[in-house]
Amino acid sequence: MRPVGDVRQALLAACVELATPTQGPTLRELAAKACVGLDAARRTVSDMHRAKQIRKVRERRVQYRNRPVAEYAPAGPECAQDGGADLASVLRVWGG
Questions:
Q1: Residue 70 is inside which H or E element, if any?
Q2: Which end of the chain is more exposed for a tag (fewer CB within 10 A), N or C?
């Protein structure tokens, strides 16, 4: 399994830092806080959402876009597992 990349680590740290119970960061806010380019952030946030590391919590209207943009929050620990712990427990049981 490949290690987590620098861009993903920076975006996840930014999401944890910026998310509040009332408002989550947008893609642009995450990219700015993480000092990551917008294109790299867009691809990585999409991958992080698919991997269930972050989740869309609501939408917000912003001045720079006609449509509402998604707000993100870090997923809970039950959603952030990469499956490694599950595999380790299966191998322990299977091995004896």
A1: strand 69-74
A2: C
Question: Which element (helix H / strand E) includes 54?
Answer: strand 54-60
**pTM of the entire predicted model:** 0.77
At residue 90, the pLDDT reads: 61
Enumerate residues 6+ apart whose C-beta is below 8 A from 56.
49, 70, 71, 72
User: What domains appear along the chain, each with residue ranges and CATH number?
Assistant: 6-95 (1.10.10.10)
Task: Extract the residue ranges of the chain whose pLDDT is less than 50.
Answer: 78-83
Predicted pLDDT at 45 = 97
pLDDT of residue 12: 95
With 0-12 CB in 10 A as exposed, 13-18 as middle and 19+ as buried, what is 92? exposed
Q: Which two tokens stand for residue 63?
A: 């001045």
